[in-house]
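Two records follow; treat each independently.
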Amino acid sequence: MTSATAYASTYASTYAPAASTAAIPLAYLARSAITSPPPPATRADTNCSACSLHSICMPAHLSATELARLDAIVCSTRVVRRGETLYRAGDKFKSIYAVRVGCFKTVITHRDGHEQVTGFHIAGEPLGLDGVCSDEQNCDAIALEDSKVCVIPFDLLEDLCHDVKAMQQHVHRMMSGEIVRESGLMMMLGTMTAQQRVAAFLLNLSSRMKTRGYSSAEFNLRMTREEIGSYLGLKLETVSRMFSKLQHAGVIDTNGKQVHILDSEKLAGV
């Protein structure tokens, strides 16, 4: 197994469906679903049991009573327009968020003002868990497109976890997933070449798409090449050069932000 394949497999397996709880997959919504601006939030819109993502964001086999309690703690949805922040580093930690529509990047700003992208968060994925340890957010969460999140007050979630074991296991799984994601990123930055990092990044997105039932070979990148470079620890010019190199090798085809993986086996073998 190549380094790129190992990273993509480790990352993807963290969010693979479990027998007892639904995983938090890292995947994009259908193209048509994310190009339209989100509608204004209503209380019915925050009903978890009626949400199209309920099988993704919630543990399986909750009773009707437990579902009603979960519905009760999801207080609202929030629309975040492209370029706006959901929260900033230093904000008091009160809630975690579930991305319902769209895509976010998380960013840490160093003392010298340099910004580092630490992750990309897609529909069905949690945001804000980093605030649990210090009672304040440790990064900025910025929408890469018009997006919508469900707001889940953490104190109410803790109460629910105390009473509903399946929910407690689900939250633990989310936190464990963040640990595995960060360790995988460290492995990638520490051991992979530039080409392997880009290949692993594309394989990771491909596996997210497959998990959601969409094409694993064709998808749109919601982030810029510069943001990809920040995440992968590469300069913009290097990212562009690696995309061109993979395209010239007949492994991928790109058109702007559209990516078509032509040969997944060759991409995994980089």
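The next record belongs to a different protein.
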Amino acid sequence: MNARENNQRRGVLKALVIAAGLMLMGPAWSSAYPAKPIRFIVSGAPGGGTDSVTRIVANGIGEAKQWQMVVENMPGAGGNIGMRQVATAAQDGYTIGMGESSNLVINPFLYTKLPFDIEKDLAPVGLVGKVPLVLVVGSGSPYTSVQALMEAAKQKTLFFASAGSGSVGHLTGELWKRQAGFNATHVPYKSAAPAMADVAGGQVDYFFASVSSAMPLLQAGRVRPLAVTAGTRLELLPDVPTFDELGQKEMHAEVIYGVVAPRGTPDDVIEALNTGLNDFLVTPAARRALANLGADATAMGGSVVQFDQLLKAEREKWSVVVKASGARVD
């Protein structure tokens, strides 16, 4: 064997040794994950629905897996501020975020320009849950059924509230107008709380509210539920019919909550996070806590691929509604 062949042989052996070492290092690194606290960004304000869901998940996974999760609120701009922080964070699994329908589905079609690409910059980790909406009117309203409300809307202009232009409640109201064949005037509010107050006070006629935001006034008897946008009746509102039961099968709408990470985060880390999430979501404590916020107990958790497919289907659905509504945010 000449010197050249000997050098080539040494080079091949060296490459094989390095490759074997890298193969061994990969699983060893991922098995040690997480080796430090995980920053869990909330795209909503403290005390809101997204914040409540995040803290349930962070505390549950933290206790079950002995992982340290540090919740950090970054509200504003429809959740875009928090999601931008996730999108631009290091791709190492130590920054994740809790998103919901507005900032994971609707905002790309609503905002003229976003500071990040919702599909290219964010990687799905897993679905947490779906919170349906409930159509409510004031307790003193003359409308005691969906049919009565629809008939009135075809005779005169009614006013419906939302928690803001482009919110799920706003777009569900626009969807209902299209499906039922009537017109109504949209009245956007800064959040769900003042919208609920004005529905209760009779200043506006109706509101598609998330179940979690509606429950305090429902329990106080200040608003009346007419129907829910879920596929089946809810445990929290067992006497309230679904739109399906009323023959309006296109009226399915939920606020989707899910965990995302920066795109480029290693697949094994994404899977570890997904496993930790699912291990928590199957526990009775998790289902009870999320059900108390109005989440559908039959639609919690699942694989990374299933969550990705759900987000794509939701974007396809709501992009049409946003366009038809004419809603835009500069």
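Discussion point: The two ends are 72 Å apart (CA to CA). How would you locate this feature using only the token line?
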